[in-house]
Amino acid sequence: MWRTARDSVCLFCRSATRPRTALVETPQTQSWLGLRAFATRPHEPRDRRPSRMVLSDRVSQGPRSRDGPKPRREVDGPWSATNRTVANIDPDRRRGGEGRGRGGPPSRGGPPGRDRGGTRERYLGETRDKDATRFKALKMQRSLASVSYRERLTVKNRISDVDSFDQFNLLPPIQEAIQNEVLKGMVDIKPTPVQRLAVPALMGQPIGRQEREPDPRQSQRRAVEKRREEFLLAAETGSGKTLAYLLPVINALKEGEAGDEAVAAYEKRLAAEQEHRGGAPVSEWIDKFEPHPNHARPRAIVLVPTAELVSQVLTTAKKISHVAKLKVRGISATYNPLKIERNMYSHGGIDMIVATPHLLASMADSDPNILSRVSHLIVDEADSLFDRSFSAETSKILDRATPSLKQLILCSATIPRHLDNYLAAHFPHIRRIATPNLHAIPRRVQLGVIDVAKDPYRHNKLLACADAIWTIGKDAAMHEGASKDEVDVKRIMVFVNERETTQEVADYLLSRGIDAIAMHRDTPENRQSEMLASFTSNAPLSTKADGSDAGSSPVPSAARRLPNTKVIVATDLASRGIDTVAVRHVVLFDVPHTTIDFIHRLGRAGRMGRRGRGVVLVGKHDRKDVVAEVKEAMFMGQALI
Ligand SMILES: Nc1ncnc2c1ncn2[C@@H]1O[C@H](COP(=O)(O)OP(=O)(O)OP(=O)(O)O)[C@@H](O)[C@H]1O
User: Which atom of ligand 1 is least distant from the CA of 194?
Assistant: First the structure.
């Protein structure tokens, strides 16, 4: 009778769309009651954020048990006051006592001397502010409190009691690759928190909560349901998640190689053929009659959302596989078709593929065997890859790989509620490995705010952005070993919300003497990869302080030049996961739409324990309160939920 269908008309705004819980006028209500229905709640604002953009605060917990008690339904309606078991008292009034409620009598119980000349109002304002902060802080704490004390203790112990990669039971070539290739030149190499948790877990060693003795009936059911192991790795940006999954997966591939019967039989036949041919090349024979069992059938797949990430993850994977003697190849839209075919169908087989979902899914459509031997599937940046734009392809790959799959690993720095719910529905037994600082921007990253509505910018955001970059650039520094007339090159990332704005901002910055490039699909590839390479390399970069070594600079010759900065202007997706270790400064040209975007954008600076600084430009129509909350949460080191 109290219909809440979408096509109804709201009594408050008379619009077709309606607030979720407001009661609405329907023919039935009119005929039955003979009067018009009225809403029981104030109208909710229409621009509510979609829940898919909201970070989950229960990442480390599994879904609620199906057998557990059902949550009480909220009673709401004209008869909601009846049959209550709890008094419906406004908590504000109950707590504050007299004078706390709005419009209440003047306080007699307040602190002495505070009830005259507006001081009391200020005092009340302050306490309310403090309450609000405490409320938010409490809300944030809830995600920690709901992880049991026992679990937190074990997680904490696990994080602190492993202080070397040698303590993981990785094969010797993989240990060697860590020291001599991946983290080469670093002193005092230690696994990061997520690596301490994830590497042993993915290798089948116990971590975290010691499971209670399982109910035999339940474990029987689980054994049937659970055909593979599923993991969620959730840890802050720049915390080393790539190595956390690559090390155990490559280790498993190498271990599996020895016991692979198909490969062993193939090697035997190959040796016989070689002997038969008396040392003549056998490649033709291989191609025609006896392709390797791994020929175009990788055993592990890493899915990432962008071509830039394909090449980044591939570089790290190759460093390990080169020592471990495994074949890892990449597939992305930036490769020409010939290269893709060569990579996929190289004789001798492939062990691991790093790819974007669209390309791999379309290849699997034409050759379903491609995914027939996959034992490990990693979905990096899982919140993007299970989002609308990628989920069809990602799910298709997952479905095709399922028969042979042993481990599914999802990995992300942010777990929005939509992903959390999706996991609870589709992967109820997934093991959640979440680090304690998840969803928090590290305190070593600071955030400055520029109000562009004020003087001297007067709503000129472009000018404010250029000014911010000039200020950063002017603070010239020199690294050790640089000559006296040289300065360090500062690498700055500017983030905008819309792809179309990237070029506009980059062009303006160029006109103001700043070496900037927009990262979008029309940017010349060589210039883009050259710029990106300088952002992802840790090596110090210097230039002549007077700009005399500008060479073929894109900055117009008439412009006053800022010689020691390089700027990339990008949207969030273009930079997801990119390991911009050299970046210390991020400018948020637009206020990000969600806290998820805040985390990823500011996460390009201050990676792996480095310090960083963000500057956000706030205009007249931007949510200053959101920016203030993010800034405060960053200062407090709290999660942005
Ligand atoms: N144990 C370690 N010690 C020092 N540096 C490390 C360690 N593990 C990884 N790194 C380095 O840390 C940097 C960031 O790692 P990575 O790109 O894997 O982060 P991430 O967690 O995937 O970040 P994002 O969420 O932004 O994708 C890389 O340059 C990597 O080489």
Answer: 21
